[in-house]
Specification:
By secondary structure, the chain is mainly α. Helix content is about 65%, strand content about 5%. Helix 4 packs antiparallel against helix 5. The longest helix has 26 residues.
Length: about 325
Amino acid sequence: MDAYRSLQAVASADGDGVVDWSAVVEAATNGTDSGDLSLSSAEREAYAEDVGDARDAIAAAIDRDVTLPETVQIFNRHHWIDANADTFRLITTPLAERTAATPRAATVVNTGTMSVLLGFLARNVIGQYDPLLLAGPDADEHALYFVHPNVTRTAADLDVPLDRFRRWIAFHEVAHAAEFGAAPWLSTYLETRITSAIEELTEGSVDREAYTDLNTAMTAVEGYAELVMDRAFDEPSAELRAKLDERRGGGGPVKRLLRYVFGLGMKRRQYERGKEFFDVVADERGLAGASAVWDRQENLPTDAELDHPQRWLARVEPS
C-alpha cells in the first residue's frame, strides 16, 4: 500500500469528465493492500467444491435448476478493484455524457471520492455474484468472485473455521445466482430503473419511483439470499449468522463513518428487512414457495408488503 502514490494519482486526475477512471483505479490500488493470494491447488479446489455443493443443495431446496458461471474466480483486493471499476464507470457514464465540461477541481474531488469508495469496498467485500448489469450484449452473462484475503481475514476476525466460513459464503453467492437464473426479467428490471434514476439526476431531479423500485427489488434480492444461505446450508449456522450480522454493523469509527458517508447502512437494512420478510414467507410456504417471488415481475413484493408479508402471501398464489 502506498498512500503517497494514491494521493498523487488523485491529484493528477485529468480530462473534462466527471471522474478520471484511470486515476481512480490507480489511486484505489495504491491505497489498498492487495492481500495474499498464494493458494495451494487444494485450496482452489475447495472453493470450487463449496460452490458446487451449494448449487446442488440450493437447487434441491428451492426445486429449481441453478446455473453458475463456468469459472469461479479467486481474487485479491486489486483484482476486485479492476473487475468493479468498469461497473461503476458504466453506471456513471450517462451522467458524464450529459454533463457539461467539469472543472478540474471537481474532477479531482469526484475521482478521490470514487477511489476511496472502491478501496473501502475492496477491503471488505468477501464474495460477489455479479450479474454484470449494464455491461452490454458482448459481455459475459455473469460472474462469481471470492476475495480470498478478505475471506481469510474475516474468518479470523469472527473466530470461525476458515473452511466452514468459506462454504457458508459460497451458499450466499450461489443463492444470488439462483435468483437471477430464476428471474430472466430481473436484470432488465434493475437496469431500467438504474438508467432512469441516473437520467433524472442529469436533469437535476430525483426519480423517487425508480429509487423506491430499486431499493425494494434489492431488498428482496438480498433477503432471499440470506434466507437460502441459512436454510439450505448443510449444518447449523446460527452463530455464524450472529457474528456476521454483528460485523456488518461494527468496526472502528472510520469504518462506520465511511459506511455512513457512502450510504452502506442502507445495504445492511436491505439484508435485515429482506430476511425478515422471507422468513415469514418461508415459514408459511417453504423455500420453494418463497421462490415464487422470481416467477414474474408482478410477484416482487411492494415496499409496503416487505413490512407486511401476509399481504404478499394473500396476493401471490403458490405455484
